[in-house]
Amino acid sequence: MKAPRLLLLLSALVLAAGLSACGHKQAHPTQADANNDGTYIDAGPLTYQMEISRELNQYSTEDSSYVKGLPPGTTPPTASQIWYGVFMWAKNQTHHDYTTLNSFEITDSQGDTYHPEKLDPNVNEFAWTPQTLAPNQIEPGPDTVASAGPTQGGLLLFKLNTTIYSDRPLTLWLLGSGGKKLGSISLNL
Length: 189
Prior knowledge:
alpha+beta; Immunoglobulin-like; five-stranded antiparallel beta sheet
């Protein structure tokens, strides 16, 4: 009788340990590349995470908010283009103030490169804008529309050619000064 009880107790402990690890996030990961699964990556002194990425429909109620604040003269996507949103989050896990990255690009398997549109943050509350983060601060800030919205991240808005569907995988590059590649995230499309 004692052996089955001991086995049951050990099984329960293993299960409890496994469940307690669910949702656990590393305090300061060291990964420089990430798949599109919410993995944290270090790029420069800050930690970044892609919250979600997806094709946007400028005519839907939710997505129309994401394509506001474009520079004057920006043309909508043609029949062979799409809007694509990448929603980012960052945290300063150091003991010093640092500014979040302002340079990103997407590349496809054919070497085509795409850069995000410059959005006016006064018009588009979801727009990713570089922020100086004090230790333990995050971007977007906790009391912002971008943080509280369904994507919970700051928006990088790209206009991509529809050829990307055949030219996968797509990679989002986080770039430092001089275009130095600091980290990458694989985008599911």
